[in-house]
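User: Hi! Is it possible to get a structure for several chains at once, not just one? Here's what I have:
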Amino acid sequence: MIELKNIHKSFGDLKVLKGIDLKVKNKEVLSVIGASGSGKSTMLYCINGLEPIQGGSISVDGVVVNDKATDLNKLRQKIGMVFQQWNSFPHLTALENVALAPRVVKGLSKNEAKEIAAKQLAHVGIGDKLDVYPSALSGGQQQRLAIARALAMEPKYMLFDEATSALDPELVGEVLDTMRMLASEGMTMIVVTHEMGFARDVSDRVAFFHEGRVEEIGPAKTVLSSPKSEYLQKFLAKVH
Amino acid sequence: MDYQFLWRPVFKALPELVDAAFLTMQVSIISMIIGLSIGLLLSFGRRSKYFIPRTLSTIWVELARNTPVLFQIFFFYWGLGEFGIFLSSYVAVVTALSFNTAGYMAETFRGGFNAISNTQLQASRSLGMSFLQTQRYIIIPQVLRVVYYPMTNQFIWVILMSSLGMLAGLRELTGETQYFNSRTFRTFEFFAATAVIYYIIAKLVMIAARLLGWKIFKGGKT
Amino acid sequence: MDPAGNAFTDLRWVDLLFLGEAAIRTIQISAVSILVGTVIGVILGWMLASGNIFVRLLVNSLLDVFRSVPLIIQLILFDSFVSIAGFPMPAFWSGTIVLSVYTAALVAMVARAGIEAVDPNLRRAARSLGMGYWQDMRYIVWPVGIRAVFPSWIGVSLSVLKDSALVSAIGYIELLRASQILTTKTQESFKIMLLVGLFYFLMSYPISKAGDYIEKKWQQ
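Assistant: Yes, the chains can be modeled jointly so their relative placement is included. Here is the combined structure:
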C-alpha cells in the first residue's frame, strides 16, 4: 500500500504540493488528472524519492520514503516508473536497456538478466526488436521499451507520468493497450494522465488535482460523470 | 637559387628520427592519459557545490586555456628554478602538456555532461541504480560518445605541441631533428622530413581513431 | 645603503621596459596575422562550402597539411626556405606570413561551418524574393553565419595570440623569448614567468569571457 499523509513540496518559493493525502491499495489503479502545474507529476517523483519533500510523510508498504535511513535504491526496485519523455538509454540496445538494472542492481547473471529482458520485451509486444538501438524505434515502441525496463525489476507498483503525452496521436493507442494489459494483470498503478477515456475505463478511482491539492477523489465513473467540484466541472468541459 | 639540396644525411638519420618519433608518441600518450584523468576530475570540480573544489578547478582551467602552452613548458622547466626545483626536460614537457590537456578536456567533459539530459539520471535512479552505478553505466558511456571526437583532436594537438619539447631540450622528434640540424646545417631538408613524419603520424592517429570510434559506437546515436 | 641592491632595482626597470616592448611586439604580430589570416580564411572557407568537389578536395587537403604539422616546424621550414631561396627576410615578416597562413587554415574551417550553419530554406526564401547569389551572401548568409561561428572565431584568434609565442623559435624577440633572455640574466625566473603569464592571461581571459557572453546572448 502506498500512503501519502499531508505532503508539502516546494521548488524554492513555489509551493507545488500543499497537503496531499492519498492511499493506494494493492491491485488498485488510480488515475490522477488535473491541469498542468497542479502538482500531479511532482507527486509521482516524490513517491519514489526522486524529489525530496518538505513536510508530511510518504510510506510504501510501511517503509517511510522521506526517512533518511531508508535505502531508496532498494525501495525503488519495488516501484517502477515510466516517464513522459521515455528516456530510453540511447547507447544500449533494447535488450541491454532492459537487462541492465536486473544485472547491476539485483546482481543477476548476464544470462538471467537477458532472459528476463527478452521475456518482458515480448510481453509488451516488441520481442522482435531485441538488438535494435532506441534511435531505430518509434516513440510508442520506445515507451513500451521503458515499460518493459521497469517491469524487469518485478516491481509491485508502477508509476506512469503522462506516458502518452509526448507521443504522436497514432502511437498513443499501443502504449495505452500495454498499460491496460498491466492493469488487467493486477498491477498496482498510479497513472498521471490526460487520457480521460483511459481514466474512466481502466482505473478504479480518479483523483483530480487542483493547485497542489486533491480537489476531488472517488470511483472513476462517479468522479468523471458527476463531478461535484466546480474546478473539475470546468476542467472536464475543457478536455472534452 | 644556387642551393644544393642534400638529402643523404636525412636518410642516414632516419632510424634515429623514427626512434625520436616513438618518444614523441610516448610523451603524448602519457600526457593525454594524465590530462584526461585530471580533466575529468576538474569537470566534476567545476560542477561541485562546494566553493574550494569549484574555485581551484576553475583557476586551473582558466590558466591552462589562457596562457600559451610554450609558456607552460617554460614555466615548469625554468620557472621553478628560483625555488631550487629543476624538472628534467621530459618531466617538464609531460607536466605542461598534461596541465594543458586537463584544462581543455575539463571544458569538453563539462559540455558532454551538460549534453546528457537530467531525465536520463532520473530514469536510471528510478530503476534503483545508485549514483555511482548511474554514472558508470548510463552517464559516462554517453559522455564518452559526445567527447570522443574532441578527444581525438586534442590528442593530435598534443602530438603536435610536444614538438615544443625541442625548446626545453627534449630530444623528441623535433628536438632530435634540431640536433641533426645543428650538426649538418641541413635545416630545410631535416625539418621537411620531420614535417612529413608528423603529417603521417597525425593521419594514422586520425584513421585509427575513426576506426576505433566506428567499432565502439556502431549503434545507438545520442 | 647597499649598492648591490641599487643596481638590482635599476636593472628591474630596464627589464620591465624590455618586457613591455616585447609584449607590444607580441600584440603586433598577432594582430596582423589574425587580420590577414581571417581575410584569407573566409575566402578559403567560402571555397570549401561552395566550390565543386575538386576545389573542395584541393583546398581541404592543402589546409590539412597546415593543421597536421607542428607550427614550430612550419616556422623553421619557411624561414630556412626563404633564406636558401635567396630572399631572407626579418623574423617579423616570416613569422607573420607563417602565422597568417596557419590562422587562415583554422579560420577556413570556422567560415565553412558558418556558411553551412545557415538553413538552406532561409537561403531559398531569399532567392525566391529575387535576391541574387551575392545579395543572398551579403544579407542572409553573412549575418546569420557570423552569429553561429563568431565564438569559434574568437577561439581561433586567442589561440593565434598564444601561438605567436612560437615565433621565438626563429629568433623574433616577442614576450616569451624576452622573458627567457631575462631569466638567464637574473635569478628571478619565477617572478618573471609570473609576470609574463599574467600578461597573456590578461590579454586572453577577458576576450574569451566576452566571447562566452556574446555566445550566450545570441543563443537566447
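Chains C and A do not touch (no CB pair under 8 Å). Helices of chain C lie at 3-50, 53-68, 71-84, 91-116, 120-128, 133-163, 175-185, 189-219.

User: Great, thank you!
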